């Protein structure tokens, strides 16, 4: 595997799953390990894609005896520090020409007027869940229904989505969530969703109760991928190459036909009960009568390389509009498609941040107006008959922050895909991101700031050391050419010594001021990737891996001090070592593990955030004070020596990805939407 391959796959997870024939998802979701005190950073890819994607957070911890309630942190409102990019928008419904509702990769909805350039606001309805929102349908301007990858539906008023219900309508019988891939609502009292098992479930969104899923496509390899309902008594779903037409009130009466033997069908629209059109991943459309599909012939409507992901809308039987992952639209007559012209409408469909995706969705409330959404948080409204070059409007702001370090109470430096942004966490002044890794498609893998005037960021096989107050004069050095899978974390215990770990089980000790390096192999176990590192001194570092292992070593020689399994079989997401004989690691299941890094004894994980969707990072400003952050936008505060842990929601936070605590009285957290949050002792 070439270095960075896993990161690219994570950043385009949705499209890759479709191309490979797996169930599609709305999320770009990579999950990144981010952990540690102010000098600690780590990264790993896990099964979650939260989209996303990477997380960073900074908080304060306060030591309290086990029997006493722990002091609460008072968290600031979101501080926008890196919002020159946008969140990926993944699904769209437009019940009226002046009202559309889009989903984004962080479980939020944003309702907007496509004919106006202001007034939109993203609201979390399913934020931070391990399973993500996959589709939305809006049968009226006051009612929308979204479905997610955990078999749940959420019905809400798009004008005021805060009042919402989350109901499991497709429960699992095997223990794993059932992914709902698409939903259609032919009326305000009836919706039909299709799932990854080839089943459909029909329910009343006002009172879903416990509807029964009906298996209608038992032979599908990937499940049902899309659904359209021409009426309350007729729906048509597609899988990889077949269509299934059924009456949702009597799902036993089915007709099934292969309509695209060599393609990967992705979307379907049915403007009439006697006409449906589907598009596939090879740029073709196929139009058929769902009552008598016969053997329709697919025709090419767009030629495009990866990613050929489509959105499709058919406002009439004689007009359909499809959009591609490359930012083009094509409008055609499905009854006589010919060779329609593809028009470029979006120059930045996937944005520039790691974790963003490029697939577009489109809705056409009339034959003269279509609105598309992209992976850069933008909408594009156009006349499909004469699209020209529509002016994009960003409705969902925020870059995916990947790490943060705070060398002092008044200075922090965060990194996104290719920029650094230095800011005063106690001031709400404007921060200006600066590129330090221009044109990076892989994302920065860690940052450490041993001094207020010196930070070191790592990516792939290189490092960049810069003065965060004047980053223009940064210098880049190759430090790990043997890391074919890339560097995954960095810690700088002093201004002249940094330690980077890679996904090949290696560590590199280097002087960030000269670039001089020494590389050693420090495998925990063959095949396990080192994901995070902490260095309590210049003579001792501890790395954790993807299988619950911890390795303590001397960075100057690579000599092992101790090797132990502290959290068997679980993916450790972060580690902090407040002193040489105590480290705290957190995992993707919400456990923390406190252990002596100089001992090879096994440790015992403790559940501190069982419902948090996974811990992403931890910081320990003292041996008795730690703060972890999770993908639900919450801080988890406790004493690793024993005692209770408290969970504190941070208002306005999306998935938190990293945390740094410059003192026991202050922590700074960053999230996937480009915001920072300051926690202070109340």
Percentage of residues in helical conformation: under 10%
Radius of gyration: 25 Å
Structural class: mainly beta
In the sheet with the most strands, the strands line up as: 43-42-41-40-1-44-45-46-47
Number of strands: 58
Poorly predicted runs:
1-70
State the major sheet.
Answer: 9 strands, antiparallel
Total number of helices? 2
Distance between the termini: 49 Å
Mean pLDDT: 83
The proportion of residues in beta strands is over 45%
What is the 3D shape?
elongated
Structure write-up:
The chain has 682 residues and is an all-beta fold. 2% of the residues lie in helices and 46% in strands. The strands form 13 sheets. Strands 43-42-41-40-1-44-45-46-47 form a nine-stranded antiparallel β-sheet, with no helix packed on it. Strands 2, 3, 56, 57 and 58 form a five-stranded antiparallel β-sheet that branches. The radius of gyration is 25 Å and the shape is elongated. The protein starts with a helix and ends with a strand. 62% of the residues are buried.
């Amino acid at each position: 595997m070439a270095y960075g391959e896993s990161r690219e796959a994570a950043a385009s997870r949705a499209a890759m799953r479709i191309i490979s024939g797996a169930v599609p998802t709305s999320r770009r979701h990579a999950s990144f390990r981010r952990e540690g005190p102010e000098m600690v950073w780590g990264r790993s890819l896990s099964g979650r894609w939260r989209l996303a994607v990477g997380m960073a957070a900074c908080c304060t911890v306060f030591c309290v005896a086990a029997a006493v309630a722990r002091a609460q942190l008072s968290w600031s409102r979101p501080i926008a520090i890196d919002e020159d990019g946008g969140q990926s928008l993944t699904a769209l419904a437009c019940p009226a020409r002046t009202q559309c509702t889009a989903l984004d990769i962080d479980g939020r909805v944003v309702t907007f007027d496509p004919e106006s350039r202001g007034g939109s606001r993203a609201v979390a309805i399913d934020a931070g869940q391990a399973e993500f929102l996959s589709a939305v349908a809006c049968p009226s301007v006051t009612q929308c229904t979204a479905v997610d990858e955990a078999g749940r539906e959420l019905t809400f008023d798009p004008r005021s989505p805060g009042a919402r219900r989350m109901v499991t309508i497709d429960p699992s019988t095997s223990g794993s969530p059932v992914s709902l891939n698409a939903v259609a609502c032919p009326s305000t009292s009836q919706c039909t969703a299709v799932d990854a098992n080839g089943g459909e479930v029909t329910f009343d969104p006002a009172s879903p109760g416990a509807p029964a899923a009906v298996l209608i496509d038992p032979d599908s390899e990937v499940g049902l991928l899309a659904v359209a309902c021409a009426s309350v008594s007729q729906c048509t779903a597609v899988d990889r190459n077949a269509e299934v037409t059924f009456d949702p009130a009597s799902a036993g009466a089915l007709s099934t036909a292969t309509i695209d033997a060599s393609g990967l069908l992705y979307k379907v629209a049915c403007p009439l009960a006697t006409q449906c059109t589907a598009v596939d991943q090879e740029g073709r459309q196929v139009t058929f009568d769902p009552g008598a599909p016969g053997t329709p012939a697919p025709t090419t409507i767009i030629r495009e390389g990866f990613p050929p992901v489509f959105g499709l809308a058919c406002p009439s039987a004689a007009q359909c509009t499809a959009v591609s992952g490359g930012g083009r639209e094509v409008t055609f007559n499905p009854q006589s498609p010919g060779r329609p012209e593809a028009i470029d409408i979006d120059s930045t469909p996937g944005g520039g941040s790691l974790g963003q995706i490029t697939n577009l969705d489109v809705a056409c409330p009339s034959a003269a107006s279509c609105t598309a959404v992209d992976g850069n948080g933008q909408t594009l409204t156009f006349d499909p008959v004469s699209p020209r070059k529509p002016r994009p409007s960003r409705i969902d702001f925020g870059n995916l922050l990947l790490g943060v370090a705070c060398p002092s109470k008044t200075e922090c430096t965060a990194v996104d895909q290719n920029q650094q942004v230095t800011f005063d966490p106690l001031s709400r002044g404007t921060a200006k991101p600066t590129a330090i890794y221009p044109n990076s498609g892989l994302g920065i893998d860690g940052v450490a700031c041993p001094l207020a005037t010196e930070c070191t960021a790592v990516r792939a096989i290189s490092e960049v050391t810069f003065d965060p107050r004047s980053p223009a004069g940064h210098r880049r050095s190759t430090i790990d050419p043997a890391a074919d899978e890339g560097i995954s974390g960095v810690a700088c215990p002093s201004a002249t010594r940094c330690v980077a770990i890679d996904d090949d089980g290696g560590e590199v000790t280097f002087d960030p001021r000269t670039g001089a390096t020494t590389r050693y192999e420090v495998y925990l176990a063959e095949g396990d990737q080192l994901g995070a590192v902490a260095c309590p001194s210049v003579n001792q570092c501890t790395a954790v891996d993807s299988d619950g292992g911890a390795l303590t070593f001397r960075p100057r020689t690579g000599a092992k001090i101790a090797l132990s399994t502290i959290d068997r079989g679980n993916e450790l997401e972060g580690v902090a070592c407040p002193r040489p004989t105590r480290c705290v690691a957190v995992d993707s299941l919400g456990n923390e593990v406190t252990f002596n890094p100089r001992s090879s004894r096994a440790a015992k994980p403790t559940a501190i955030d069982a419902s948090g969707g996974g811990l992403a990072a931890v910081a320990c400003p003292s041996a008795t004070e730690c703060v972890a952050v999770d993908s639900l936008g919450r801080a988890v505060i406790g004493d690793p020596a024993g005692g209770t842990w408290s969970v504190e929601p941070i208002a306005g936070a999306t998935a938190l990805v990293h945390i740094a605590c410059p003192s026991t009285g202050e922590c700074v957290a960053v999230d996937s939407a480009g915001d920072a949050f300051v926690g202070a002792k109340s």
